[in-house]
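Researcher: Go.
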Amino acid sequence: MASPDAPVVVGIDGSDEALRAARWAAAVADGFGAPLRIVHALPSLGRNLTQTAAALTAAMMSYQQDMAQAFLKAATETVAADHPELRVTTDSFNEPADQVLIEASRDARLVVLGGKTVSPAAALLLGSTALSVATRAACPVVALRGEHVAPGTGPVVVGVDDSPAAQAALATAFDFADRFGLSVIAVRSLSLAAPMETGVTIPLLIDWDGVESAELAELTETVAVHNKRHPGVEAKCFIEPDSPGKALLKHAAESGLVVVGSRGRNVLAGVVLGSTSLNLLHHSPVPVLICRAPSDA
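Model: Structure:
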């Protein structure tokens, strides 16, 4: 990931989900020997469609501003109870959280967000801090899911295709697994080898066993490159005959973290075209780490 001095940044809003995110971020920061930066900012609420919604928004903004220091104090005390030696700094901003966290990502090792799942409707109509930050941040972003307050002992599941973003995800997965003594499960979707891309029009005549063997050999070779850099990490490879999102979710339940690459699509494109990252943000039972290719950051 980044240099040792780059902090793990976590966004909080006073919710229980945000406190869990702070604890998870603190555990990761402690594991990497990095500082933790706790940030409070105003909600990213999208458009107000009615006068009632505008009034509720104003009230929420006022409440968040008034309670900012109390929220930061509570998060700091919670983190200190788990990791008393961890270096922690706090900041409060009267700006939208997505803008603040995207700016903070420029100097961060990782950005961690708590909060609710992201549905396609919410992403399209209201916007989402998690989706906005994940598609625009300069560093990997973790959307905390489930009840986790630390990385745990489950394997790191990572989706692998031929894109630069997926290669960045694979490197990040091995780095994370090596640091926390975890294994890696690399998953490739067989649907990526679609018949239409090869000009074949009679799928029943395709040697799908042969295709799967070829895909597995390619995946194993790709994973081996990263495994040589992290020889202490046990890695397994799987080819799944499902869409990328379903293939990853099949392995997510027993994992502690799912890592996926994002091509940096905007919110509308992610909803209309379909997005593995969006699917995981909506359905994953464990934290989701989203990486972008270095050229996209």
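Model: The radius of gyration is 20 Å.
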